[in-house]
Amino acid sequence: MKKLVLLFAIIAIGTSSFAQDIKYGVKGGLNLANFSGDDLNGDSKADIYFGGFMRMTLSEWLAFQPELVYSRQGSSDDSEGIESKFKTNFLNIPLLLRAKMLGSDKLYAIAGPQVGIHLSSELEEDGDSMDFDKGMRDMDFSVVLGLEYELNTQFSIEVRYNFGLSEIFNDDYFEVDAKNSVFQVGIAASF
Predict the structure, then answer these.
(1) Of 37, 88, 96, 176, which cross-links 65 as Cys (Cβ 3.0–4.6 Å)?
(2) What is the 3-state secondary structure (H, E, C) of the chain?
(3) What is the residue range of the signal peptide feature (predicted)?
C-alpha cells in the first residue's frame, strides 16, 4: 500500500508542474453497488462514499484529477428465503481526466482508471455476520466514466459508474466470477 500511495504522490507532483491552476476539494455521496459476473444475480446495495481530490488544470478544457475515496460497496440478495448482504470497504484511487463538454461551460465528462485497495469485508446472512477478508483479493482495478455539472465555482454534482475489470474474490476461498459494479451520485466542493 505504501508503494501505491508513493506512486499516487509522484504522479500528482509530476503532473502539477504542468498545471496552470490547482484546486483541492472534498466529495461524498451515495453508492449503488453490486457485483457483475456470469455467476451472480444479486441486488444493488445502497451505501456511502467520501474523500478528497486535487484538480490540476492542463488547458482551458482539460484537467487531471487524482482522488482518494473511501467507498462502501458490496451486494445484497433476498432469494430462497435467505436475506444476505455482502459489505466491502475499499480505498479507491481514481486517476481521472476531466474534459469540458462542447457547447457548455458547466458540464464535464470524467474518465480514467481506478485502483481499489480492499480494506475489509463482511458477509451477513439473516442477522448473523462473519468476516470475509481472506476471501477477497487485495486489489481491484476499474474504469470510471461519468459526468460532472458545476453549480457554481465551488460546488458541483457528479454522476459516475465504476466498471470493475478484475475479479474481486480470492479463488482459493470462493470460485465465482465477480467484479465490482458501482453507480455513484454525489456532490463535490472545491477550494
Answers:
(1) 96
(2) CHHHHHHHHHHHHHHHCCCCEEEEEEEEEEEEEEEECCCCCCECEEEEEEEEEEEEECCCCEEEEEEEEEEEEEEEEEECCEEEEEEEEEEEEEEEEEEECCCCCCEEEEEEEEEEEEEEEEEEECCEEEECHHHECCEEEEEEEEEEEECCCCEEEEEEEEEECCCCECCCCCCCCCEEEEEEEEEEEEC
(3) 1-19
pLDDT at 82 over 80: no
Which residue, among 62, 70, 53, 80, has the nearest Cα to 20 in the 3D structure? 62
Number of domains in the chain: 1
Backbone angles phi, psi at 12, to 5 degrees: -65, -45
C-alpha cell at 67: 482522488
- pLDDT level of residue 70 (50, 70, 90 thresholds): very high
Q: What is the CATH number of the domain that holds 91?
A: 2.40.160.20
* Burial class of residue 134 in the structure, from the number of CB atoms within 10 Å of its CB (0-12 exposed, 13-18 middle, 19+ buried): exposed
- Of 109, 118, 172, the residue nearest 142 (C-alpha): 118
Please give the radius of gyration of the chain, using alpha carbons only, rounded to the nearest integer: 18
CB of 157 closer than 8 Å to CB of 148: yes
Does 131 score more than 70 pLDDT? yes
- Compute the Cα dihedral for 141, 146, 151, 152 and give only its sign: positive
Task: Provide the whole-model pTM.
Answer: 0.86
